[in-house]
Amino acid sequence: MGRGDVWYLPLNSVASDFRVNWVGLVLPFLEQQPLYDSANKSAYLSDPKNAQYRGTRLAVMLCPSDAHNQTPFNGSKSGETASWGDGWARGNYGANAGQGAMNGESQSSVVAGGIGGGGQV
Q: What is the DSSP string of the chain?
């Protein structure tokens, strides 16, 4: 769901319904405006239209001591995640929205880093 140019994740979403996470929201502040602009904001992240966007690895989101964060997450490897699609960039860092500081609603969330998530917190 989104409000203008601001995206958020409802707590009842499944990964195939994700439109963005906190990493997507901070991309312009990480000198990644072209990547932010490349996202199809009317499509879910799992949509093939956003494959390049969700698959872009960001060095700033990767812990240098994690040897496994270079391998993309491929949802097709499991029946439970098959609808998510393949090629999701991983990340090692997370954000806590507290009581809705990121989306204006009174709900908490922790979302793993990487444009599409699939990371470790």
A: -EETTEE---TT--GGG----HHHHHGGGGT-HHHHHHS-TTS-TTSGGGHHHHT---GGGS-TT-TTTTSPB-GGGSTTTGGG-S-BPP-S-EEE-TTTTTTSSS---EEESSTT-----
Asked if 118 and 90 touch (Cβ cutoff 8 Å), the reply is yes
Whether the model pTM is above 0.70:
no
Strand duo 6-7 + 110-112: pairing: unpaired
Q: What is the pLDDT of residues 89-114, one digit of tens each?
A: 988 988 776 655 455 544 444 444 55
Map out the domains of the chain as residue ranges.
Answer: 2-112
Which residue shows structure tokens 């999701």? 88
